[in-house]
Structures are given as structure tokens and as C-alpha cells.
Amino acid sequence: MDLTPYPNLTNPECPWHAVREWGGLPNVKWCEETLCSWVAEPTNTWSNLAFLVTAAAIFVVTRRETSRTERFWPVAAFWVGVTSLVYHASVTFVLQVFDFFGMYFFFSLVLLLNLVRLELLSKERLFPVLWASIIGLTVFTVVVAKASLPVQGIVGVMLVAGIVTEAWATVKRKSQVRWFLGALAFIAVAGAFSASDVSRRWCDPTDHVFQGHAIWHVLNAVGIGLAYVHYRQFKALFP
Hints:
- The protein is an all-alpha fold.
- The protein has helices at residues 17-23, 42-46, 49-62, 68-90, 93-117, 126-146, 152-172, 178-198, 212-232.
- It is built from nine helices and no strands.
């Protein structure tokens, strides 16, 4: 990683420097300039509030639900947002791993709910396997990163697995998919913005209002909300 344009990543006078020195730097540098501040990437940090808005909206809808799965959805959205917010505030490897920990709440939930629908996983085992998956994938992320491999590929594999199992479950037991397709559309557009950011095709490091990766956060927050609406139709199948 060329750190020449981002001197504050290694500036010992800046906040988070001790954590960066101890745990190392993330394996990717997004476009936004890293500031010598407790909030090192303002736009990439505060855009994660969109996930917390989604979490709050789902919480309002599910607060009287008796289903444990229904009540887990706002928890998943909350962790996605909080962990990403802290990571972008710090730009450190340690909290990048924390960011992946948060993302695994959502991706593991979707994949395992599909396996329950396919009767490949009993609903009684959903939450034990879910927590084991979140923790196991987080540990695996550290191993992959330390091997200098792209940890972002793990999320890509889980996304594909979620789509494949969703298609399989829909074929097996016909269901309404328009909300799922809407979620995929938002995620796809979000991915395009994030890719343009990391590739520097659309990149102004000094713009702390509009950043491609920040737009990724906002659109994915909408995608999580749409995914919740999709899976709500199956709540009788889940614990």
C-alpha cells in the first residue's frame, strides 16, 4: 500500500497511531483523505449512521414480536453500522477486523435463514450456528489478512452463497422475491460506487461530503431494510 498521499496514517502525533503501530494498517485504503483526528475519515464514518437509522426502523416494527429471529434483525443492522463507523473513524487493522465482525451478523443471518428454509438446518440450531459462524468467520478473517490475502473476498463469497441459496429456496417453495431483488439492486449499485472509490476512478480525497464508499454505506443500509421485509414473510419457519 502506497501511503505517500496519506501521511497521517503513520504520523505518531495523530490519534489512533498507537493502535495502527501495534496492530497494523488495514489491507485497503479508501479514497477519502485520512485526517489527523479521532474521526480520521469523516464521510466514511458518519455515513454509517444510515445503518443505525435502518436498525431503529426495524426495531420499531419488531419491538413487540415474540420471534427471536425478528428481534435479531435490528441487532444485525446495528452491529453492521457501529463496527463500520468505528473502523472508519480509526483506519486501523484491528478495527477493520471488528468491521468484518459486524458484517458477518447480516451475511451469516441471511445464509442460515435460507438453509432453514431449505431444511438443511433445523430452526432450533439457527442461533448456535449463527453465533459460531460470526465468531469463526472473524477469526478466519484475521488468518486470511495475515496471509496477505484479500479479506473482502470472504464477504463476496457469502453474498454469492446468499443469492444461490435464496434462488434454491425460492424454486423449492415458491415465494415473493420483489423485496429481495430490490435489496440486491441497492447492493449492486452500492458495490459500483465502492469499486469506483477503491479503484480511484471517482476519487477526490479532500471531499468530506461525497465519497463512493460512503454512498456504499447508505445504499447498503437501505438494502438491509429491504432484505428484512423479504425474510419477514417466512417468520413462521424461524425461531
